[in-house]
Amino acid sequence: MRFSGHETFICKQFWLKKGYDFLQNGNKFGDEDAVVDLGVGKNMVSAIAFWMKAFGLCDDKWNLTEIAHFIFGENGKDKYIESIGTAWLLHYMLIKEQYASIYDLFFNGFRKARFDFTTAQLHGYLKVVSEENGVYNENTIKSDISVLQRMYQVPDNSDAKSEPEDVYSSIFNDIQLMVKFKRTDNKGITEIHRIPNLKRDNLPFEIVLFSMLDNYSNKQSISFKELETGANAPGVVFALNKIGLFEIIEKITLKYTNIRFSSTAGVQVLQFTSPLNKWDVIKDYYANY
């Protein structure tokens, strides 16, 4: 379980491309020239290294992965993360990889019980989980929560506490997942953060299908309930409501004739009548965006 490594920096828009090119050229993040080669400060070098692993773009030995080459390589599909689909794809990878523990714990655990939350409530949850694993550190957890909020919060430069360079630099700005507002009651004013389940009209169905094929590899059938609430399931990862998930499944079955959605005796199931390669699916998305 890991709650540090980002040096308090969110992952900025062009950092993953920088990190990819850096490793592809045979460099190492521990090299003395890394600061010059990457054009950032020493702490940012460490942060880029952290985010490369957190998104599953390299392994523990710094070998670039297939998804890294697919997105950022010489013939990469979206080197500068200009497509909304790439942002959603990276969002899925961040949760699924579990390298940065807070994202898995937040989406697959904490958020299942509440869409609205305070920073204190999230901290309390992470404290219990990390103490059970013997890794609790108050300042580290506070830092991780701050980074998560700054990564996903809808940009708002009216907040005096926000970092000016963070307002529009996160790779997740466009997916518009988290909003912040103030609630007033007899106890005073409380700052609330919210990620509701919605239809997500900006979420490409091919990205969702890629996540299904990746998360449920070799499964020939998946229940709707599992797709809605299971670990790393579309309903959980992409914060989809029932209608949104149904509509995406409908788009998937219309395009791919070897995928069927059936409802028998109240049991709703997505079925794969023949194997489908996740890379072919994601290539379909980038061929059309």
How would you briefly describe this protein structure?
By secondary structure, the protein is mostly helical.
Overview of the molecule:
The protein has helices at 15-24, 34-38, 42-54, 66-72, 84-97, 101-113, 119-132, 138-152, 205-215, 224-229, 234-237, 242-255, 278-288; strands at residues 116-117, 179-185, 188-194, 221-223, 259-264, 267-272. By secondary structure, it is mostly helical. It folds into 2 domains: 15-194, no CATH class; 205-288, Arc Repressor Mutant, subunit A (Orthogonal Bundle), CATH 1.10.10. A hairpin with a 2-residue loop joins strand 2 (179-185) and strand 3. Helix 5 (84-97) crosses helix 6 (101-113) and helix 9 packs across helix 12. The longest helix has 15 residues, at 138-152. The chain starts with 14 loop residues before the first helix and ends with a helix. 32% of the residues are buried. The model has no long low-confidence stretch (mean pLDDT 93).
Order of helices and strands: HHHHHHEHHEEHEHHHEEH
Tell me the radius of gyration. Answer: 20 Å
Distance between the termini: 37 Å
Q: How many beta-strand elements?
A: 6
Helix vs. strand class: mainly alpha
User: Low-confidence parts, pLDDT < 50 over ≥5 residues?
Assistant: none
Question: How are the SSEs ordered, and which strands pair?
Answer:
Layout: H1 15-24, H2 34-38, H3 42-54, H4 66-72, H5 84-97, H6 101-113, E1 116-117, H7 119-132, H8 138-152, E2 179-185, E3 188-194, H9 205-215, E4 221-223, H10 224-229, H11 234-237, H12 242-255, E5 259-264, E6 267-272, H13 278-288
Antiparallel strand pairs: 1-3, 2-3, 4-6, 5-6
